[in-house]
Specification:
heterodimer; A: about 170 residues; mainly alpha; about 0% strand; globular; B: about 100 residues
Chain lengths: ~170, ~100
């Protein structure tokens, strides 16, 4: 592990964590959605750093380009009150108990990671050609099932979000 | 000496914790979806890290799993946000504390 990798990883990790923490603590939900986008861009940068360029680009296209924009649209569609609010969420019992639970889970995971002997190989890499061959070869059934799932999700989302017809109109 | 794999796992665990804190503490339906997206992202980082630093693998297992996971997360976000719009139309609010019609 080189020093350059360490510095780049620290920058990327800071972007991811700061973005997510801002999404956790800001009151304005619109700002939360934008901070989510920052965190997702950081994740894409992490994939690029790990040498998985295709996944990084997919992450930007799907998450930043589609999911984050969709979240922003839904916020604009459902926002109704605009009373002035503090910048950060107020500390309540729910916030404290939620934070304690999250810190406990993270601490347990970190402990497990530190206690587990992990052997590192640093061997795998994949270019787009290999990924395409794998998608068209051993994973072709999975790709088609995902296509079916996306189609049904699209239709289901349209049906759920479509305006309801008035029952008593006839 | 900490390895690259361990660094990625620690980062993913921290991201998972933050996503979980969002889903637990915030009461806005969209924010809970945001928290779930962050937790899914943490899982994806783990998939990629274990594949990238694992033994030689010609099937690209972890990478393909992450790609499928992203596709399913996109479908989940679309349906979830459509549900939020539908709920908002009924109750005129997205605060989950005020949507308690099923509460006995």
């Amino acid at each position: 592990m080189t020093l350059a990798f360490l510095i780049a990883f620290a920058v990327v990790a800071a972007v991811i964590i700061v973005g997510a923490a801002a999404a956790l603590s800001l009151t304005n939900i619109f700002h939360c959605a934008l901070c989510l986008a920052v965190s997702l861009i950081g994740t894409a940068a992490l994939y690029l750093l790990l040498g998985v360029e295709f996944l990084g680009l997919v992450q930007i296209l799907v998450y930043v380009g589609a999911v984050a924009i969709l979240v922003v649209f839904v916020i604009l569609l459902t926002r109704h009150r605009k009373d002035p609010a503090p910048l950060l969420i107020p500390v309540s019992r729910r916030v404290v108990s939620g934070a304690i639970t999250a810190v406990a889970v993270t601490g347990t995971l970190w402990l497990a990671i530190f206690k587990t002997p992990l052997s590192e190989f640093n061997s795998n890499s994949a270019d787009v050609k290999q990924i395409g061959l794998a998608m068209a070869g051993p994973y072709v059934v999975g790709v088609q099932v995902v296509a079916l799932l996306l189609t049904s999700a699209l239709i289901g989302a349209l049906i759920l979000a479509a305006p309801e017809k008035k029952e008593d109109s006839q | 000496m900490i390895t690259q794999l361990e660094l990625c796992l620690l980062l993913a665990a921290a991201l998972f914790g933050i996503g979980m804190a969002i889903a637990l503490t915030r009461r806005h339906a969209i924010l809970i979806l945001i928290g779930i997206e962050l937790m899914l992202n943490a899982a994806n980082i783990n998939f990629v890290a274990f594949w990238r630093f694992g033994p030689k693998d010609e099937m690209l297992t972890g990478l393909m799993f992450a790609i499928f996971s992203i596709a399913i997360a996109a479908a989940e976000a679309a349906v979830g946000l459509a549900l939020v719009i539908s709920v908002y139309r009924h109750f005129r609010t997205t605060n989950l504390d005020q949507i308690d019609k099923l509460k006995g």
